[in-house]
Amino acid sequence: MVGKSILTFFILVGLYSIIANLDRNNKFVALNQNQGNKVSLQEFVYASEDEYETIILGSSMAYRMKSFMLPKSYYNLALGGSSSILGSEILVRKKTKKKKILIETNMIFREVSGAMIKDLFSEPSYSIKKNVLISRDRFKIVPFLVSKGSSLMELNKKVNRNYTLDSSRFQKILESQKSTFNTLPNHSKIEKCIKNLKENIDILIESNNCIAFFEMPMHDALCNTTLMNEIRQQISSTFPQSEYPYFFIDDCFNYTTTDGVHLIPNDAEKMSTLIAEFGDSILCSKN
Amino acid sequence: MLFNSFTFVLLVLVSFLLYYLPLMKKLQVGILILASFIFYAANNPVLLILLICSILINIVVSYLVVYGKGNKKAIATLGVVLNLGILAFFKYSPLIGRSFFPENSSVGELLVQIPLPIGISFFTFQGISLVVDTFKQGQTDQYKSLVPKHLFKHSVQTSLFISFFPQLVAGPIVKSKDFIPQITAKFLYQIRWEQCFKNLTTGYFLKMVVADNLKDFTSGMALPYFELKSSLNLFAMLFGYSMQIFADFAGYSLIAIGIAGLFGYYLRDNFMFPYISQSFSEFWRRWHISLSSFLKEYLYIPLGGNRKGNFRTYFNLFITMVLGGLWHGAAWSYAVWGIYHGLALAIERLLKPINTFKQDTPIRKVLNAIFVFSLVSLGWLLFKLPNFNEVILYIKAFFNNFAVPLSIRDYRDILLVIIYSSPIIFYHFYYLLKRHSIKKEHLQKLEPIIYGVMLFCILTSSGSSQDFIYFQF
To answer: Last residue of some domain: B171, B187, B203?
Structure first.
């Protein structure tokens, strides 16, 4: 019984490897935020170093700028539920060199998830996932089938590009966001996060990378909250504007969000164009 | 150290190779104890001191119960109190600190900061089992095998019994009378490979493919997110959580049983397809069997069981379940969960004599199973949302959000909960089929395909790893 089971396993692995290799560039639809993060990270970590010129780090806010909205030389390494710090840690671990790195500052107070880094870089997981295509999250059976199904049915065409929550639910969640954004997290926590980011950025600069900062627009009522002002203050004192390029948003009212924080697809596309222009305008002397 | 981590696999492999080396035959027990200590110390080495203290207490107390000259009942009682004292101090101090001391009091703060050592609920219960078993069994041969005269041998046996790594941090809880007699020389030819393979494959599949994927869809069961979801989504998430908690815990137990089997130790089943239960009493004979049987033997029966009249029976059931609830966690919601199950058991027992249905038709059996499953699942809300107010808000949201529209993504999430839960449904259904089918050999022919597919899914469809839910208990 054991032998037959193992034989069945190898037959399935062989068949699925053929299918996965034939379809390795399929469009992937993440079933949830965590999966989207993992696929994005794995594709970046296991990809060749020269595929991208500009890398975007950030949270779920910058994640809204989908790859198809950005130029091909851009890789969006923004991670839902996380922040630029995790992205910068990944770049340090990957020994990234000579790239433009655009850092979203909005959710900078989120600490790094050690589990995610361990999952990516620890052996033997790293070697298996780098070399065995079907062990990567992109080729998990259920999301793989859902992605195929979505492509076949062209579901994406039906996505409402101006989708927001209905007004009562929107107001409810906006109130909750206001309360969060008007409460300062522990001062030392923000400090620790920024110190962590600074250490990573120093290493990245030593490797001839160019660093720039940007802020994602959010609902007008959240743009100038206590938390956002504190973050701006701490970021600009650690990374002075005289040394780093910045892209500020002073017209939050011109953007629409689904829930106060995340842009609707149309405005995410608008923002992608602006960020691409900003990225292209940065002159990187070290490159 | 997670069962699905590379470090753990390495620990098992190295221990296994050394364990069966002919040169090491006399050191087999020592190898297992060392592996268990490494396993326990991996996350927080300081807590190993606590485990060793617990082992020492139980070595001394059980030895004195058998060979001491004093009042044996008093020594055994002291042993039980010491075990419960350790459990209470580490597990319930934060709850006492939060509940009974003002927010800024120094005592309250101190109590809240006491760390919860992983697996403490399990290894202290095993200590109690050793003390009580040695006291209860009197001067019989079985009793002497539990506590040998030679103190060193007794210390080694007790150390292995309490620290045995496959079941150290999340069970199954093993009774000393079931485990200690198994401590003998082991040989490779004794291993039941097929059974170990089945347990390990099913266990890893349940944990890595079912539970770890479902957790991504039940993470929405948190304030304020669930308030925005439709009733159908809330229902699906609760259903998914019910499946997740089963897959997580039953998966862990099967892996523990499988690994123990590789080292020649037989651990009893901890789950027996609980979601087909047609009554609460049946559910508790099928869910976390090692805990139910421990509570029955060491609490319910000593309290008088059902021997002291109806009122006392209901009372005993109720108390056993409340304490069983509190055993799970230091939060009042766990006590409420215990009360909920205690009441359900008591009411079920109360209604039994007036149950006029003489014949159990298949439809009635199915309806009973759905009814019990629904109420059990509702009870899991107290596990997922340990703040009782949040449980109320979840139930309120369920009744208020019927009109909330569902997006394509909501429908997709519901479908995915069903897809990832389907192996659990199949798992139960396959058991029923095997139990009632006259052509079992036909089903057995399918097994290599089923286990091959499970192995394939472990490689290609595991979710992101997360601690086992029962680690927190």
So the answer is: B187
In Å, how far is B354's CA from the nearest CA of chain A?
48
pLDDT over 50 (residue B239): yes
Q: Which of A125, A135, A165 minimises the CB distance to B460?
A: A135
Model ipTM value:
0.82
In this structure, are residues A77 and A56 in contact, taking their beta carbons and an 8 Å threshold? yes
Task: Flag the least confident range among A26-30, B306-310, B386-390.
Answer: A26-30
Burial of B265 (0-12, 13-18, 19+ CB in 10 A): buried
B467 Cβ under 8 Å from any chain A Cβ: no
pLDDT in tens, B402-437: 888 788 888 888 999 999 999 999 999 888 888 877
Q: How many CB pairs under 8 A join A and B?
A: 93
Q: Are B22 and B117 within one domain? A: yes
- For residues B111 and B101, the answer to whether their CB atoms sit within 8 Å is yes
CB contact under 8 A, B457 and A141: yes
Look up the domain containing B432 and give its range. 193-278+360-472
Q: What is residue A186's predicted lDDT score, i.e. its pLDDT? A: 73
Beta strands A54-57 and A74-76 are parallel
**Which of B148, B171, B187 is the C-terminal boundary of a domain?**
B187
B453 at the A interface (CB within 8 A)? Answer: yes
Q: Does B456 touch chain A (CB under 8 A)?
A: yes
pLDDT for the residue numbered A287: 44
Query: What is the spatial distance between Cα B320 and Cα B323, in angstroms, rounded to a whole number?
Result: 5
B24 and B109 part of one domain: yes
Name every chain B residue with its beta carbon within 8 A of the beta carbon of A168. none
Q: Is residue A120 part of a domain?
A: yes
Residue type, B110: L
Give the number of domains in chain B: 2
